[in-house]
Design goal:
The chain is α+β, with helices and mostly antiparallel strands.
Length: about 170
């Protein structure tokens, strides 16, 4: 995958590249069965429109006693304009039995204030509209999620002058 293979500007571009779902946090919380129970990659996306509003204290859980919140200025510095993609993640590899459903369950539980091991992507829980964000996924039943995640992050960085998506803290 190179710079031109995937355009992160809007949801339709992601659909054309094999992503499906696009279900809000609020709709997923009571029904995780709509998420495939196989490995793959996923994204948290936001419809581009209004400027983001940040909360000083988000809804993320305090895993191992660590406060997941960061100063609003840090959130502003991390924000990437002109993209719908806020976070890119993976579920499963040769050493893990994680599936899209199990990984997104952890992510949503963390966002509901539970102490779960999903500190990556935690910045989304400090967005005022966190419950309206959408999760999408690309199942990779026989693929390599870590390799696909790395390729997606590289394509994003190529398009956005070396920057990672808003809530990705490392590539």
């Amino acid at each position: 995958m190179d710079c031109s293979d995937l355009d992160f500007k809007n949801i339709e571009n992601l659909r054309r590249n094999g992503f499906s779902g696009f279900v809000s946090v609020a709709a997923l919380r009571p029904d995780l069965t709509q998420i495939p129970d196989i490995r793959g990659v996923y994204m948290v996306v936001r419809k581009i429109g209004s400027r983001p509003q940040f909360r000083a204290t988000g809804s993320g859980g305090h895993y191992k006693g660590t406060d997941p919140n960061v100063p609003i200025e840090k959130l502003r510095m991390n924000w990437v304009e002109e993209t719908c993609a806020l976070y890119i993640g993976k579920a499963g590899d040769e050493h893990s039995q994680a599936t899209l459903r199990s990984r997104l369950r952890q992510y949503l539980q963390f966002g509901a204030g539970k102490p779960r091991g999903h500190k990556g992507g935690r910045y989304i829980w400090q967005l005022e509209d966190a419950e309206d964000l959408l999760f999408c996924w690309k199942p990779l039943p026989s693929g390599n999620p870590p390799k696909e995640e790395t390729a997606l992050l590289a394509a994003f960085k190529c398009q956005y002058e070396g920057r990672l998506p808003f809530a990705n803290l490392k590539s």
